[in-house]
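Weekly structure sync - notes
Attendees: PM, LS, DV (DV joined late)
Agenda: review two folding runs queued last week.

Item 1: First target. Sequence and structure tokens pasted below for the record.
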Amino acid sequence: MSDILKYDLTDHIATVTLNRPEAMNALTRELYGDLERAMRDAHTDPEVRCVIITGEGRAFCSGDDVKQIMLGEQRDETTRRLRDVRPRPTPAGAAVLECDKPVIAAVNGPAVGWGMDLALMCDIRIASDRAKFGELFIKRGLVADLGGLWRLPAVVGPSKAAELLFTGDVIDAVEAERIGLVSRVVPADDLLTAAREIATKIANNPPIAMRYMKEGLRKSRLASMDEMGAYIGSALGYLFTTEDHREGALSFVERREPVFKGR
């Protein structure tokens, strides 16, 4: 990975920081690639139990770097479109969505365009009081990625999602909390502390059960009641055999804090 993305692993929490503050963390092809690799690394690393994604400086992510990704296509539009557009999810977005560890977006400032989609692809969103959100794709003659068209309706409801997608309006952190787009809003100086507090609670829980819990949430978006029942039965059948389940039960009986080892 390059210096435009920072990756830190401390106490089972991987912090991924978009690091182009001079460009409000706008995404270049290189930064998209770095983000994909960071999320794939977090997915496969057994030491990682939770991921925080945030931005350096005053912005979370201002979306695509227009000069490179959009205007650059005009130099040879046909060739670039054939090369860059594929009938599949954006690789970086897929890496975030497919990560089997819980992912928290610590939205420190504006999250617009693909920046808002990136926040939506995370499991939990904590916002600074300086955050703003906007699905600006319609303003550029484009459609949103999976964050906007797949996740947003499930998060805020189809009517509010349609309003945000069709107008391209930008909303502040207070409105984002009101409509359920973010879990909470905190002062800017407290954002990473609040995100790490949640991440620590998650990291202290049994990682195998956490992976099954996250997969269950993913399946619940499309599965029927019978399909979910089958998944839950299968998951419990395995989880009852784990050392972590035994530790959870013993710690309750012995009135102590559990220590989970991911076994």
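Item 2: Second target, run right after the first with the same settings.
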Amino acid sequence: MPSQPSKDLETFENPRPERDYTIRIRIPEFTCLCPKTGQPDFAEMTLEYVPDTLCVELKALKMYVWSFRDQGAFHEAVTNEILGDLVAVTQPRFMRLTAEFNVRGGIYTTVVAEHRSDDWTPPTPVQLP
């Protein structure tokens, strides 16, 4: 197999660090294992962030997400782990990870975890007429 899962996250320099802008990344094929049964859990994740000086590199993110495929994890734990790892490497102004897990035992789970830099104030939204 030419590529392998990896916990290594790579970054690149933000091309417009003077501007607040949002990057949204849709991750529709996240999988991990239920820590109780060992059965697969499937989720669609949405990563939204306002970068500071660094952005996450997408191929590395893909390999990182793949690395959870054989890992047992509770939904709440894995969502916060991924957010923590991404915050550690990118140090964003703001980051939100939303994980919408498919049904398991008749129950859907959505976990939303956020990070906000202490020195960042979000801009006031523009309300157009």
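Discussion on item 2: DSSP finds two helices and six strands in the chain.
Action: LS to circulate a short write-up before next sync.
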